[in-house]
Design goal:
This is RWD domain-containing protein. The chain is of the alpha+beta class. It has 2 domains: about 160 residues, Ubiquitin Conjugating Enzyme (Roll), CATH 3.10.110.10; about 130 residues, Ribosomal Protein S5, domain 2. The protein contains 9 helices and 11 strands. Strand 1 and strand 2 form a beta hairpin. Helix 2 packs antiparallel against helix 3 and helix 7 runs parallel beside helix 8.
Amino acid sequence: MAEVLNQETGADLQAQIEEVEALSSIYGDEWCVIDEASRVFCIKITCDSEEPKLTACLQIILPPGYPSTAPPIYQINASWLRGPERAKLANSLEELYIEHAGDSILYLWVEKIRDFLVAKSQSCEIGAQSEKVNLTAEEEVDEDVPDFSTLKINTENTHLFVAEAKDAEIPLIKHGDCITDRRSTFQPHLAPVVTPKQVKMILEKLYENKKIASATHNIYAYRIFCEEKHSFLQDCEDDGETAAGGRLLHLLQILDVRNVLVVVSRWYGGILLGPDRFKHINNCARNILVEEGYTTSVEEVSKSGAKPKRPKSKKTK
């Protein structure tokens, strides 16, 4: 049995080496080796259109079982890719993997993303998107894709596409109170989750709400505790609000909450908030976590650095 496993592992590694060599030859300087020993790579993808010239960075980890039994672990970095569009692209990559399960998939993924960039560039919606970006000038410094040659993948914060059985029902979604500051409004949403599939279902359900779908940013983070491995499956999404998803996930880690997804919607009001926007995002998340009983210690809550009001007592309104 061990001999068979070794043969399979060796075959997978050889397939990876051949695929990486081919991609390096095809894409040249766009292809970058981040950590060859850990099988971490990155490719910068640009559409061929003249204006606007959209770019995305696809970061990849090739696990030992790829391509025979395991999909690549990946992240897509593109500040213009938000909300429903990101979900649509993720679904198309998942479908490609399932359709070609067991085969090398990276070339197909890269070209699928490139096609998506071309379609986005040609879309009449790009003008509205550009205007939205210009309005949210506080994120303007982060609009360019970072130097892909310096990027690292945090394996705890990557999304693994694995075909899973559909959950019977969408978990109950709770909506928290809004925080408004200088015409920007922040609202949290929360749902219990035990599988990544449930996370996906909840996000799709939220985007069915036109108001939530129209938010400038929908930042989210989740943590799922895996009993068998005694470890956490966790991920986050900035949705264009650079670093907000990571900060939100860090809050969940500090509070040591588990099996929960928190989404914070922000509607930009035209006035720059600077760092205060991160404070409001975390305050929203913390408030709904406390309200729904995921954390009750005010002392633990305060470790995040924000200054929420302490609940005086439980009174009926």
